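hey team, just a heads up i'm posting the complex here instead of the shared drive bc the drive is being weird again. everything in one block, sequence lines first with there labels, then the predicted structure for the whole assembly after. its four chains so it's a bit long, scroll down
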Amino acid sequence: MAELSTRQRILDGAGDLFFRQGYRAVGVDTIVKETGVAKMTLYRHFPSKDDLIVAYLEQVNQLLWEWFDQAIEPHQGRPREQLVAVFTALEKLVKSPQCHGCAFMMAASEFPELDSPGHQVAIAHKRAMWERFRDLAQAAGARRPEVLADQLLLLLDGSFAAVRMFGLDNPGANVREAAQTLIDAQLPRELS
Amino acid sequence: MAELSTRQRILDGAGDLFFRQGYRAVGVDTIVKETGVAKMTLYRHFPSKDDLIVAYLEQVNQLLWEWFDQAIEPHQGRPREQLVAVFTALEKLVKSPQCHGCAFMMAASEFPELDSPGHQVAIAHKRAMWERFRDLAQAAGARRPEVLADQLLLLLDGSFAAVRMFGLDNPGANVREAAQTLIDAQLPRELS
DNA sequence: TATTATATAGACAGGTCTGTATCGCGTCAA
DNA sequence: TTGACGCGATACAGACCTGTCTATATAATA
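-- predicted structure starts here --
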């Protein structure tokens, strides 16, 4: 039983509330009550609510990349299969009850100013995801890797949006096949 | 110069603020100040802020269907082309400066409870959009119209999400080609 | 002219928001 | 034993929130 640090306890509790209810909908008092931490303790670890939100988004960023790497790991050296594997994993993700959408899209929605702290982290994450798609597409020999990256990012975000909109029974359940179709269309005939 | 009704003035002003900044971020006082209307007048036309939000969403719903019908109108009787035409229009829409994303996705984001008033209107709209896609896909002779409808809805919402996330220069600019690819994959060889 | 409907203007109630200040308790190291 | 330190609890300031109330102005209608 590794005891979590206070900082981590705050981050986890606040993150859960943010993810479910939204950033503006959750007040600091609620976080304090939910985590059982004192208000001053929270403010000593995170100077402002904005800082807490940014810290949460950075944690989600890290977790999502672990998820991503885990998804493509079994297909090392076969970039085309890796691209598909991401969407196989995504299909499973958007069908799981602990997924309430995308924390970054929520941030972009609630903090529309492009240069606001939360939105900046969100853009950085999505851009990094796009680059990953493009690199894999390029490695797989795509004719126009950037175009494929655009298309796959649309599918990814469309799936996350669908979870938030419809709940568990959402059209993201068919995202793998869509991704497969787009990949096939942008890649030369399968070799292996 | 048709003078707008007070109700419409409130709806337009509030809608603009909601769309840009978000529902929770905009207070009633801000709407009152921006529209130049008295607070009591607002509350006589809309009993609560939630009612105002719902009324706004219903107006957006109507406007979006007009946009949709206008997009497919030139291709009457050719459902396959009509499907593509929606995404040609969407590409144009997400590149225009007055588009800040999707008011319904924002509602789903900020009011995550599936049975909250705003979320209900949002779900109804998206479901109707899905049905339109499915009907057109079926009319075009798609093998699995429901699957194609799922896929196209992902692209649509992915594009709207991309606008909110990245601003004017977003990957939604390539959504038409993605839609075309998915449509081609689900439809028998073009006849006409 | 009197009435009715609708508008503006602004004070106000009661609650919630973020962030600060204060006090006291326990722990651990010197 | 002493002192530093992290933490819990709680009161508080000042701003903002939704929604109500009163008072007044205006315009159409009976």
